[in-house]
Amino acid sequence: MKLFTKSRASAALKFPFQLIESELVEVEARIKAEANAFDPAVEGYVSYILGTSGKRIRPALSLLIGGACGGATADHQKLGIVLELIHLATLVHDDIMDGAALRRSQPTASAKWGNALSVLLGDCLFAHALELAASFDSTHISRKIARSSNEVCTGEILQTQRRFDLALTIPEYFRIISMKTAALFSSAAELSAWLSGASAEVQENMRKYGDLLGTAYQIYDDCLDLTGSEATAGKTLGTDLIKGKLTLPILYLLEESNEEQRTLLNTLILRQEPIDLNVIVGIAGYAGCIQRAVRTAKDMLEEAREAVAILPENDYTTALNGITDYLDQLLDSCKA
Amino acid sequence: MKLFTKSRASAALKFPFQLIESELVEVEARIKAEANAFDPAVEGYVSYILGTSGKRIRPALSLLIGGACGGATADHQKLGIVLELIHLATLVHDDIMDGAALRRSQPTASAKWGNALSVLLGDCLFAHALELAASFDSTHISRKIARSSNEVCTGEILQTQRRFDLALTIPEYFRIISMKTAALFSSAAELSAWLSGASAEVQENMRKYGDLLGTAYQIYDDCLDLTGSEATAGKTLGTDLIKGKLTLPILYLLEESNEEQRTLLNTLILRQEPIDLNVIVGIAGYAGCIQRAVRTAKDMLEEAREAVAILPENDYTTALNGITDYLDQLLDSCKA
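Output (C-alpha cells, whole complex):
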C-alpha cells in the first residue's frame, strides 16, 4: 500500500493529471477540511495525517472516469475523498505494523504519538470515511467500499501470513496484491462509472482497469525495491526480502532456479538478514527475472488500455491512458 | 468498553433476557456464522473472536425494543449483529492498547497472534460489520453506525489523552464514557425504534435509555474496580487508577478533599504505582465517594425507566426495566 514513495529513479516524470488540476486542488482542500468533522481533541492528529500530501491517485481516478463517462459531479469528488480517507487510515495502521518512523519524509503517527493512539486514530478515520460513504443516496457505495476495505486488510493479513513462506505460488501473490494494493483503485474506477450511470459492462471494464493499474504499480514497486539507487549503488537488496516479502521478481527467480540454486536462495531468504545483491546476481538469471516482472506489468498495462477502449475517445480517456503510459515509462527505468 | 467482565460479586444475578432467549440463541449462531463471510485464511482468527461468548447486550437491546415497538424483525436481529461485530472489533483493538493477555479467561487476539495481525483483524471485522450495515435498504443505519463507531474510538482517544490529567472535570468524564461505552448501546436502542417506524420522540427516548444504561454500567464498572473482592481482600486498589484512569468515585474524592488531602492524592496517583487502599480510605470520605457514584448511577437508571415509560407497558418494556433493575442490584453490591 506504499506506492509512489520510492520513485526517485524518475523524479522528472509526472502524473498526467493536468486535465483535472483545479478539481484536484479542490479535493485537496476538502480532504484537509474533513478534519473539522472530528472532535476538537482529535482534530489536530487527523489534520496532520490528512496533510501528508500524497498523489491523490484514487480521487484522480474517480474524477477522470467521471469525466470520461459524461462529466464528473460532486458525487465523484466525494467518492474520491472517501477512498483517499480509507487509504490514509490503512497507512496509519500499516505504519504501526511495519514500525515505520517516516512516511513521505515526515514522522508517522505511530512514531509521533505511539501505537495505542494510532490504532484508534486509524479507526476514527476509517469510521468517518464510512460515514461519508453512507451519505450517498444509495447503499451501493457504502457496501462496495466496506467490502474493498475488508479486502485491503485481508490482503495485508495474507501477506503477513505468507512472509518467508517459500511455498507461495505466483497466483497467490497476484491475489494478495490485487487485494491489498489494487482494491481501492478498482473501487474508485468501478464506482465512478456507476455514479455516472454507465452500463454494467463499462463498470466492469473500469473495475478491471483499476485492478490492472494497481497490480502493475505494485509490481513496479516490487522491482524498484530490488533495482533502486540504493540497491545498485550499495551492497544490500531492498527491504522487501529482508521482511520475507516474496515479490514477483523473486518468485520468478525461485521458479527459474535449479534445485541447488533454490536451496541456496531459500537459505539466504530464511536467514532474515540483508542479502548481498552480487551473491543473488551470481545465482541465477536475476536480471532476467526483473525484466520478466517488468514485462508482466507492461502486459497488464496493455490490458488496462484495452479496458479503457470501451469508452469513446476524449481528453479523459487520453488521460486514463496517460496514467498507463506514465507507469510504462517508470517500468522502463527498472534495470537490475 | 470492558463491561461485565468483573461481576464476580454477583454471579447469582442474571440478565433478564428470558423473553428473547430463543432469538438470542439464533443471534449467537448467526454471529458465529459470520466468520464464513471472511477469506478462508482469516476465517479461523475471526471464528475465535466471534466465539468469545459475551452477554450480547447490544443485540438484546435491539430485540427487546423491537418487541416493545410492535415486534422484532429480521432487521432488528441484523442490527444487533452489526453492533456486536463492531463491539468485538473495538475489543480486539482495545486489547492491543492495554497489552491485555486475557479477556473472559481466554487469550486475547494480540496475545495469541501479536499486535500487527490484531490491528488488521480488528479492521477486517469492522469493515465487515459496516458492509452488513450497508445491506439495509436505507443509508440511515450505515450512517448512524459509522458515526457511533467514530464516537467509541474518539471516546477512547479522549480517555487515553486524559490519563493522569488531574484537571479532568466531571462533565468531561461523563462525555468520555457516554462516547466510549454508551454510544453502541444508544445506537442499538435508537435504531431499533427507527426500524420499527417509531416516532422521533420514541427514538429519542430510546437513545436516551441506551445512553443512560451504558453510562450507569460504566460507573458500576468504575466502582467495582475499587470495591471488588480483590481490592477489599488485598492491599491494592483496582487497575484503573494505576493506569491513570480517573473514574467517577475518584473524581468525587478529589472534589471533596481539602487542599492538603488533594495534594497527597495527586502525588499518589501520579506515582503510577499500586495504591494502598487503606491509605486512600484514610485520606477523605472514600466510602462516601463510592456511594455518591453509586447514587449517581442509580439516578440515571431512574431516568432510564422514565424514558421507557413513553412506550405502552408490555412484556418487553418490563424486560427493559428489568435490565435497569438488574443493574440497580449490582450497584447495591458495591461497598467500599
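Chain B has a mean pLDDT of 89.
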